[in-house]
From TrEMBL:
Gene Ontology MF terms: ATP binding; ATP hydrolysis activity; transmembrane transporter activity
Entries under PROSITE patterns matching the protein: ABC_TRANSPORTER_1, ABC_TRANSPORTER_2
Protein known as: ABC transporter ATP-binding protein
Domain of life: Bacteria
ABC transporter domain: residues covered: 10-247
Length: 251
């Protein structure tokens, strides 16, 4: 089914996810309505157990919501079967993980081209090389991950996320394993993906410094949207996060 014309790269409507039954039921997401415009950078934050990871899993088609809908570029993908969702993740969603998740026996160039190979297509070598050049690793194309620093590995992961020109890039704590200086470089690169390439980035993070690179910060508490900040600053994000953490502890 063709995608509908929409200004949103990703939407969730009444997104709900429960685990367990009866008295042991846990509601990880409780009716989350969010829309992420094309060419935007959004950070998702919240206290531990707020539903951030579950949200990312549900919109990526890794976990199935109990109710509600997930729309990718206007197409409702909520009820797609596992095969269609797997193809969706290879071709229309880019992933950046905290632990990089590069294949250790593949070179940087081969890791970047992997989504194409998994889709049964021959990688466009010029595009792969161009992306490695964009992330500053043209001279590391033939290096295995073991010969790259943590920041370089994450740059390879970002190039891999971009290779299929996805509708959205989902980043899960992308700077969590990096020192602060290296993290800033990675965040600047994600920012450039939005500003220069028109990509859409949704990033889960606990770090106010990382969140300040985004256009918007959305806060989740107990599986619900608990507020947002437009044009965030580090101080504004840190203050809101501290307030939400205090509320969580007091309950």
């Amino acid at each position: 089914m063709a995608a509908l014309t929409t200004t949103f790269a990703l939407e969730t409507q009444d997104l709900t996810r429960t685990f367990g039954e009866g008295a042991g039921t846990v509601q990880a997401l409780a009716g989350v309505d969010l829309a992420f415009p094309r060419g935007s950078f959004t950070a998702v934050m919240g206290p531990s157990g707020s539903g951030k990871s579950t949200f990312l899993s549900c919109v990526a088609g890794i976990d199935r919501p109990s109710a509600g809908r997930v729309l990718l570029a206007g197409t409702d993908v909520t009820s797609w079967d596992e095969d269609r969702l797997a193809r969706l993740r290879r071709r229309r969603i880019g992933f950046v993980f905290q632990d990089f998740q590069l294949m250790p026996y593949l070179t940087a160039e081969q890791n970047v081209g992997l989504p194409w190979r998994l889709s049964g297509r021959r990688p466009d070598r010029a595009r792969v090389r161009g992306l490695l050049d964009r992330v500053g690793l043209a001279d590391r194309a033939h290096h295995l991950p073991a010969r790259l620093s943590g920041g370089q590995r994450q740059r390879v992961a970002i190039a891999r996320a971009l290779v299929a020109e996805p509708d959205v890039i989902l980043a899960d704590e992308p700077t969590g394993a990096l020192d602060s200086a290296t993290a800033r470089g990675v965040l600047a690169l994600l920012r450039a993906c939005v500003d220069e390439l028109g990509q859409t980035v949704v990033m889960v993070t606990h770090d106010p410094v990382a969140a300040a690179y985004a256009d918007t910060v959305v806060f989740l508490v107990d599986g619900r949207v608990a507020g947002r900040i437009e044009a965030p600053t580090v101080d504004a994000v840190a203050a809101r996060q501290a307030h939400l953490d205090e509320q969580a502890v007091s309950r």
